[in-house]
Amino acid sequence: MKIHTYISIISLLFPSLSFACEATWPIVHPFKNNGGYAFLQKAKYSGGWIYHPGEDWNVPTPPGGSCDADKGLTVVAVAAGTVVYNNPRRWGGIVIKHQQGKQAWFSQYGHIQNSKVKVGDQVSCKQAIAEIGDTATKCAHLHFEIRSLLHPMPENGSYWLYGKQGLGSKSQTKRWYHNPRSFLEAKMKPTPK
Ligand SMILES: [Zn+2]
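Above: inputs. Below: predicted complex with zinc ion.
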């Protein structure tokens, strides 16, 4: 019997065990919010103040080391989907659309380098898509967003509609963006049958 036959049988016997990757973290190394902005924290951008709509993901800086320590680390797709934006020269980086039934959500990977995908590519969960870079930032880190809508200007994520006019409302930002960590955590939990 082939390995996937065993997996199918085990899945039938134990339906709560899922072997499929529903969702994963965007970087595989240990990470923490290391001096970057957190979700909905007030952040200063060149266009004005905004509520930072994503999370800045860093691996811990080694003692006495550079804050660029994570430059070059692999960034992976957090779920299966289709690449809808790809321009690593802009901080907006890569946007992937995840269609789940009638609902779609979007993951965005900013400040990246060496993109390995192009628009229209189908990517699988955990597929390597790029590396952490330092586009438009002082220290290399991954700016990561989960969006509830397709962004009209993907490369300017945080400036969506209101950014250049100053601080938009927190409730509006919450409608457009999800807290990345809790959103992914919820997806990783096996769905009760
Ligand atoms: Zn950021």
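Residues 36-37, 52, 54, 56, 143 surround zinc ion (CB under 6 Å).
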